[in-house]
Write a structure and sequence with these properties.
The structure holds two protein chains of two kinds. By secondary structure, chain A is mostly beta strands. Chain A has strands spanning 4-7, 10-14, 19-25, 31-37, 43-48, 52-56, 59-64, 69-74, 83-90, 97-98, 102-107. In chain A, strands 2, 4, 5, 9, 10 and 11 form a six-stranded mixed β-sheet that branches. Chain A has a five-stranded antiparallel β-sheet with strand order 1-3-8-7-6, with no helix packed on it. The relative contact order of chain A is 0.34. Chain B has strands spanning 5-7, 10-13, 19-24, 31-38, 42-50, 53-57, 64-68, 74-78, 87-94, 103-104, 108-112. Chain B is an all-beta fold. Chains A and B meet through strand 4, strand 5, strand 9 and strand 10 of A and strand 5, strand 9 and strand 10 of B.
Chain lengths: 108, 113
């Protein structure tokens, strides 16, 4: 099956710093989403981005489908950005396969 | 609020017991997905239903079963529970079967003691 690799596995930042999270996938996909899981366990949808670039406030994402990777940019990080960021892909219109996540800690 | 409703939010039960988790999808969504998140296995896809029919099956144990009812709500039944079944169970929904944003509920925390 499709492999989804996220890097780095852990990231510690000072408040105000910028960061880039990466997601590599091993096959073509019909769907790619980025999620943020907050400390209470909620999975919050950030972007639906099978290709191209999107921005939402301090967050933006880019997917280069032909090269099978996606990047999530977080600018001017805040403590509320802490949590785990997941990339999930759907190769066959059936289900989303998740990467292992990047655990982000933003320190005040 | 994603619009996906899951109940119960927390559940503690004993080994060998059976529990039912319930999910109401977002209004207008026909697809329902179930996922299990445990510390050692990460987020694992269990099963997908589309408009009442099973569409895809992932790493779902034979002790687990699910269904989607005519009103599109779904239930996940977990039986002969073991300690290792303790996990956060998510329901998600989407409009169709692919190429759509998938929205997750808040999850049901299951603890088996």
């Amino acid at each position: 099956g499709i492999q989804v690799e996220q890097s780095p596995p852990d990231l510690i930042l000072q408040e105000g710093a910028n960061s880039t999270l990466r997601c590599n996938f091993s096959d073509s996909v019909n769907n790619l989403q980025w999620f943020h899981q907050n400390p209470w366990g909620q999975l919050i949808n950030l972007f639906y981005i099978p290709s191209g670039t999107k921005q939402n406030g301090r967050l933006s994402a880019t997917t280069v489908a032909t090269e099978r990777y996606s990047l999530l940019y977080i600018s001017s990080s805040q403590t509320t950005d802490s949590g785990v960021y997941f990339c999930a892909v759907d190769p066959n219109n059936n289900d989303m396969r998740f990467g292992a996540g990047t655990r982000l800690t933003v320190k005040p | 609020d994603s619009g996906v409703t899951q109940t119960p939010k927390h559940l503690i039960t004993a080994t060998g017991q059976r529990v039912t988790l319930r999910c109401s999808p977002r209004s207008g969504d026909l697809s329902v997905y179930w996922y299990q998140q445990s510390l050692d296995q990460g987020l694992q896809f269990l099963i997908q239903y589309y408009n009442g029919e099973e569409r895809a099956k992932g790493n779902i144990l034979e002790r687990f079963s699910a269904q989607q009812f005519p009103d599109l709500h779904s239930e996940l039944n977990l039986s002969s529970l073991e300690l290792g079944d303790s996990a956060l169970y998510f329901c998600a929904s989407s409009v169709g079967v692919g190429g759509n944003t998938i929205y997750f509920g808040e999850g049901s925390w299951l603890t088996v003691v």
